[in-house]
Amino acid sequence: MDRTKQIWVTSIFEVFEKMFYIFLEQVEIGGHYDMTAQISFRGPRNGRMRFFFPDNFARTMAMNMLNMEPDEISPVIVEDCLKESANMICGNFLRRFDTSQVFDLGLPQLAKKTGEIQSAPDSDCSIAAAFESDGEGFSCILTFQEEDAVR
Amino acid sequence: MSCNIMIVDDSGSMRAVIKKIAAISGFNMDHCYEASNGREALEILKENWVDVIISDINMPEVNGLELLRSMQADDLYKEIPVIIITTEGSDERMQEALSHGAKGFIKKPFQPEELRSTLYEVLGMSKDGAYGQDEADMGDLDF
User: Which residue segments constitute the domains of chain B, with CATH numbers given?
Assistant: First the structure.
């Protein structure tokens, strides 16, 4: 799973640097979240990615992506940016994972759900990572269906 | 020469980003139409002249590949250049898009320069924003 996690983390770095102008560093998993974006994929491997964003970080993403001022950012814009981030990370990861295979991405979904993300060890079916920039950050989990687990 | 652009993406944020890049890329952009899927794009094409389309693949209702297929089947639309901007970057998906008439393929995430240079290439413009030699020469002709 180490290779998979490395590819996934690289995809997350690239999407945040190119589209959100945010330079992340990887940190310990944990922290508060206010919104969850998720996207599923089907193909030689099936699974889904979930992203847990706190409000402030989500608003920063939207402002950076669209070059907007804080008072121009609406909840609808923030939600759309989060869904698009999930879409881009998933697509970027899958083409790095295996460019010769075709994966079908689901449509990204967003839920407003507050909670605390708990640390959990990586397994054959699931890996987690967390990132931070300027004291704000988010966590994410990549899950493969059990029969598709990468060993 | 001004041109009409259509951006097809189910993400309003991504449409806004693409529109901003196109606007600052030196084009004399007349109209920028926006559609959130292929069905809306085809509706816009019925009523409006569009010089170039920038489209995502993964969209609800009618996706980008279905839009390309519909355009290829229509004599009026098949010559309109389409640039695909998508997260789906497998070799097979890219070949599928190109075989259905896409003239350019950009993978998300992308740098503004990638979109700018692909737009210039597809529209036959040089990097300084001038149109191709054939068109430039027409200015010297006496009619």
Answer: 3-138 (3.40.50.2300)
Using a CB-CB cut-off of 8 Å, the residues of chain A touching B109 are 14-15, 18-19, 88, 92
- Smallest CA–CA distance, residue A86 to chain B, in Å, is 10
- Gap from B103 CA to chain A (nearest CA, Å): 21
The per-residue pLDDT for range A88-143, each reduced to its tens digit, is 999 999 988 887 888 899 999 999 988 888 877 788 789 999 999 998 999 999 99
For B65-76, give the DSSP string: HHHHHHHHT-TT
Cβ distance of B13 and A94 shorter than 8 Å: no
How large is the ipTM?
0.84
Question: Residue B41 corresponds to which tokens in the numbers above?
Answer: 């794009």
Under an 8 Å CB criterion, which residues of B touch A?
10-14, 16-17, 20, 58, 60, 86-93, 107-111
In this predicted model, what pLDDT tens digit does every residue of B2-59 receive, in sequence order? 889 999 999 999 999 999 998 888 778 889 999 999 999 999 999 999 999 999 998 9
B16 to A66: CB separation less than 8 angstroms, yes or no: yes
**How far is the C-alpha of B53 from the C-alpha of B56, rounded, in Å?**
10
Angstrom distance (rounded) from CA A141 to CA A38: 9
- Domains delineated in chain A: 2-148 (3.40.1550.10)
Measured CA angle at B107 (ends B72, B53), to 5 deg? 35
Chain B CA closest to residue A16: B109
